[in-house]
Design a protein that fits this description.
Helix content: 25-40%
Strand content: 15-25%
Structural class: alpha/beta
Number of strands: 8
Radius of gyration: 19 Å
Length: 250
Amino acid sequence: MGRTITIALACAAFAASPVLAGTKAMTASGYALPKDKPVTIVLMRPDTDVGELAAGGLPQPNADWTKAARANIAEALRANGAAKKIEFKFIDEQSGDAAQLMADYTALHKSVADAIIVHKYYGAKLPTKKGKFDWTMGPGAQRIGDLSGGNYALFLYTRDNFASASRKGMQVAGMLGCIVGFCVIVTGGQHVAYASLVELSSGNVVWFNVLRGSKGDIREKPGAQGMIDSIMASMPTQPGEAPKAEVAAK
């Protein structure tokens, strides 16, 4: 329980911190997509949530905003894939055991991504992973390939919280306090996205990218396209292509 809370707090701090804005990709050391077979990428249902930051800083989920963002992200991924000639496989709505399998792996991706954030981006280094990037979801991920016909899966996690009017008012009050020598820094909206490309035969995460900060309002189509184009820019897509690391494993 203690470790779970620590990881959750670290990830929340990572999302809220003004440091490290932009994208920072990491890749499995020495990995390249196979040359001898087609690369077919299964697009997992994006794990997306959009809400509003209350005056006190707590996020309030908004179902309508989330629904709009999910539709815009799906459309943006289709456009990005078409532009890069990526063979995406969009999974139809599942039921029964298949639906549970997808839900389980979406949750597992969140756990693995949180661990990557904590141990590769946030400073809590693991001695056994020093100088390399070797994170995995386990060989059971092949079941996604069996279900879909793909040999890779793309997982996407996004959280966007926009500042409410009351929160913006507190920001203004905090800045005005600086005039009389009593500054209170109140943060505004929080925006973070993770993306992982997973080799389904092994479950290994071969490419991982983080986008901190906003590339646009994902409740609108142009904003969602800006976010997707930014976080997908370094992902390998073609047979034989190596991931484009922006940050060396450390």
